[in-house]
Amino acid sequence: MTEHQSRKFTRRAIVLGSTATALAGCATTAQSPEQTAILAEPAPVAPLMYAALPTEQFPVPAVDISQIDPRFWRQDIDYETDEKTGTLIVDTPNKYLYHVHSGGRATRYGIGVGREGFAWAGRAVVAYKRKWPRWTPPDSMVARQPELRPYSVANGGMDPGLRNPLGARALYIHENGVDTLYRLHGTPQANSIGKAVSSGCIRLLNQDVIHLYDTVTDGSSIVVIPDPSVTPLLVGSA
């Protein structure tokens, strides 16, 4: 092989080698659509506020955050309102509950609200609150669902616990000293938050209702903003 031929062969080898390297790079970095989606949308990390609560009377499991949109996670936000500090504002259309603080701030919770036909709105007060409450469905509910008769008022209601529909805490809503039969209460069903699912009551994650219970006081005002898409039952609307 002549010196000229040797230099030509070497240049050809370099070109081919560079091409092979480039092709090898494409092969190792190419991703399937599924892999690309996984890389683009990493699973959210569960915040500590939704961890298990093993010291509760009935140990509360961690929230399955895959069942709830992160926008419904509890957070403190800027919130301007004419309502006084301590007021609870239920934004039914957007599925949020705000606990008003001073300085234009509020804690916002994601909620589940009443189904159409059971939705309600208006002004009332939080008369009192209970840890791990008993549940006694109203007679009207028992009439619709006779299987609930064992838990009726006459039969003493359902014992507290994780299966109890009121969850870990309940806040009891009265208007002019009269029980409205509506509650703010806990639920372990993360997939119900952000939806209209309950029979009128406002549900929060158990971890959230525990947090709310610890910060709200008896006698606090509650304002429920109606959803314009349904005809609400007005409570204390005067």
List the total number of helices.
4
CATH level 1 name of the largest domain: Mainly Beta
Order of helices and strands: HHEEEEEEHEEEEHEE
Radius of gyration in whole Å, from Cα? 28 Å
| Structural class category | alpha/beta
Distance between the termini: 105 Å
How would you explain this protein's 3D organization?
GO terms for molecular function: glycosyltransferase activity; peptidoglycan L,D-transpeptidase activity. Pathway: Cell wall biogenesis; peptidoglycan biosynthesis. This protein has helices spanning 3-29, 33-40, 139-144, 206-215; strands at residues 75-78, 88-91, 96-100, 105-110, 113-114, 120-131, 169-175, 178-187, 196-198, 202-205, 221-225, 233-235. It has 238 residues and is α/β, with parallel strands linked by helices. It folds into 2 domains: 3-40; 48-235, Beta Barrel (L,D-transpeptidase catalytic domain-like), CATH 2.40.440.10. The strands form 2 sheets. Strands 1, 2, 3, 4, 6, 7, 8, 10, 11 and 12 form a 10-stranded mixed sheet that branches. A hairpin with a 2-residue loop joins strand 7 (169-175) and strand 8 (178-187). The longest helix is centred in the first third of the chain and has 27 residues, at 3-29. The radius of gyration is 28 Å and the shape is globular.
